[in-house]
Amino acid sequence: MKTISIRLDDSIYEELNSMLNAMGQTKQTFYETFTRTALRERCIPFMVKAPLNEVNTESVSKLEAFEKLEAIRLRNAGTIDYDKEREEALDEKYGAVD
Fold first, then answer.
1. Which are the contacts of 56, defined by CB distance < 8 A and separation ≥ 6?
2. Which listed site, 2, 9, 53, 79, has its alpha carbon 20 to 30 Å from 72?
3. Where are the beta strands (DSSP E) in 25-91?
């Protein structure tokens, strides 16, 4: 078993500690749960976003587009035949191969 060390601001540490105590959890179980979920899902288990400001409006548009596509993907999970979709896209791009 490995040990890790994480540095947090005092206020964040205390807020996390209070929240976890209210849930009956420890920081160790919190981080283990987070890590196991990330490994199982093969992604960070929440949406990571950049803060909105004037400089990154193009990035925000891309994030919004991604979120819309992700919502569509989740709504259609299990109903899309990805092999068929891929074949149709390749046929459209390169022509049908017989």
1. 50
2. 53
3. none
Q: Are 45 and 37 in contact (CB under 8 A)?
A: yes
Residue recorded with tokens 């807020």: 15
- The number of CA neighbours under 13 Å toward the Cβ of 47 is 10
Taking residues 25-42, report their average pLDDT: 91
Helices 10-23 and 27-41: crossing angle in degrees, nearest 10, is 90
CA distance 72 to 69: 5
Percentage helix, strand, coil for the chain under 3-state DSSP, each rounded to 5: 60, 0, 40
Predicted local distance difference test score (pLDDT) of residue 82:
74
Structural element, H or E, at residue 66? helix 57-75
Segment 40-90, tens digit of pLDDT: 988 887 776 656 555 556 666 777 888 888 888 788 777 777 778 888 888
